[in-house]
Amino acid sequence: MNPLEWIRWRVLAAILVVGGLVYFLGVDSLVRWRINDLGARSTRARWHVGSVDLRIFSGHYGLADLLVAGRRETAAAAGNSPDLAEARVFSAERASFDLGMDSLLCRRFVIERLEIHGPEMRIERRRDGSTNLDDVGEPEEEAPPESPGEGPGVTAKDVEKALEAAQDWLETARKWYRRIEWLREKLRGDEGASASEQEARDHYARRALYPFAGRPRIVIREVVASGLEIDFSEEGGSAALPRLEEGRISLKELSDRPTSHDRPIELSLEGLLERVRVALNVRLDLTGDAVVCEIRFDTGPLPARVIDAFVGRSLPVKLSEGTIGVTATVRLGARESLSVAPTLRFSGVRLATRPGARRVAGLDAREFVQAFNEASRLLDDATLEIADLRITGTLSRPRFQWGDTVEKLVRQGARAFVQGEIEKAEAKGREVLEKEAGKVLERLDRALEQVPGAKDIKEGLERILPGLGRPRKKSDSGEGR
Amino acid sequence: MLVLGWIRRLYKVLSADASPEAVAFAAALGLAAGFLPFASGMTLVVLLVILVFRVQISTAIGFWGIGALIRAAGGAALFESVGESILETEALRGFWTWFLNLRVVAWLDLEVYAISGGAAAGFVLGIAVFFPVRYLVIAYRRWAHERLSKNRFFRWLTSFWVTKLVGWVFVGGKS
């Protein structure tokens, strides 16, 4: 029998025709429907795409009008509108990427470069200290903190306390560190679970995992978004927070198994905040025994009010005017170990005491503020650089080591302050003394006029003591006296 | 009526012009497909083979049903342990790591114990079923179809209307 006769050519042709029709006429809408259906039912986030453009044979894929919002239950719990557009965290006009057919045949989705056009982010800080970014991703298996805006016994003080925690950079770093640690443990557990440990809901749930160990199914080598705009807002906050503009974000080495991926995740964000350049670089390594995270932060001279708006409540002093530039490298390691080496550049900064703050850099808060402001005045508009501050310890118990610069600055400022006070006291004393001396001499003049021959004596005295009976002038002091 | 339908279908398969190999392949593939869950890459491949290659489709469907019944009646647990012992054999780990990551093979879900076990059991039982079915079809066609139809007594017997009625009931109108 001819092997060609083994094949049902008509059936094969019918399958090809149906496949071709689906590909050319319906696959885009089918995939779009599937993506949106998953996005509507997902427990991790909600998403929606406006249109899909799939070119399977050339390996080019595109999505348009993307919207990503937080999980439905949290959005509802927070009292947000269920509308996706209103609750959005991220949106973009278009995203495009190439997917290698070779890796696709191996059931691996490897995207070398994902480009996002017209991206926009909306970050809202809530009354309970959380942000809308917390709603994206898998919910943590712990009871959510009670919102202070909801309970019956909540006072304005509680709300203020929660806001302080939200603006505390250490608290925020600790929260994110714990979240990443939890996620890492979870992923490790999923990857490392042996067959007997897996919970089998049915016979088809258990599988061998070792063939895919160290081989993530989904890998995105780089995500690039330019023209990024980030809107910051505070729930119930009256003051508008500045907006990040002309941003560019680059995310490298994303995968569905970051704990076994060969390279660490890298994030790079650049943009303009109040027309001042800010840059953030993060390197996150989840492959070792513990989370290792390195954050490099670099800003130009940011207005004090901008810094105050973001982290103001967590600082022991209030920033009232001037600019501050920060370059810092933060390193987080095992067991929340912390190492920060910042360089702070102050220019024309004036501080004010914050109620409740007692000590700053080992000094009384009020004295520190006075000394700092004096030193700042002495420097005029020159930039003061503090490069020897070190923060070590852990996220829970940070240790601040203030170097010589702050000590010298405070000492210099204190000296200037004391000098100024002495000069003020001296001038005041001189004024009082001269006033009293003038009165005495006036009385003496009157008394002398009644004494015969006193005029001659006075003239004689004036010859000996020039300027007697007249207010003292600067020219009077000196050798002649 | 269901039993009658099955008898009629079996008669048609045995009497059709499909080759004995086509019927035997259909039985083997149908049984293998029945051992697998419908939503898996491996099942899709078996289904495509049944559709594209000239195997006897109704036989395949019949054996698919038998396989699915076996799977539902506790076979899945057996396939799971078979698959687990195959995939977790220490000496074969290197091979499976290479094989399961191959192009196309990676889509077959063979890393799932019950699917690899079902596929293995289906393959072995398919081979085991192939030869008896092929032999049975050849033997039936040679004996029942050819010899019996040429037998004088049988032709005399089938000339009665009662016999025709029984034949119509059991094997359908074309008997």
SSE sequence of chain A, one letter per element: HEEHEHEEHHEEEEEEHEEEEHEEEHH
Find the count of extended strands of chain B (DSSP E, 2+ residues): 0
What is the number of helices of chain B?
8
Note the beta-strand portion of chain B: under 5%
Which value, in Å, is the CA radius of gyration of chain A? 36 Å
Structural class of chain A: alpha+beta
Compute the separation of the termini of chain A in Å.
138 Å
* Oligomeric organization of the protein chains: heterodimer
The overall pLDDT of chain A, averaged over residues, is 79
Low-confidence stretches of chain B: none
* CA-based shape of chain A: elongated
Specify the helix fraction band of chain B. Answer: over 70%
Structural class of chain B: mainly alpha
Distance between the termini of chain B: 18 Å
Biggest interface reads:
A-B, 25 and 29 residues
- Give a count of the beta strands of chain A, DSSP E runs of length 2 or more: 18
Write the element-wise H/E pattern of chain B from the N-terminal end onward. HHHHHHHH
Helical residues, percent of chain A: 25-40%
Features of the shown structure:
heterodimer, A: 481 residues, alpha+beta, 14-stranded mixed beta sheet, two-stranded antiparallel ribbon, 9 helices, 18 strands, elongated, disordered C terminus, B: 175 residues, mainly alpha, 77% helix, 0% strand
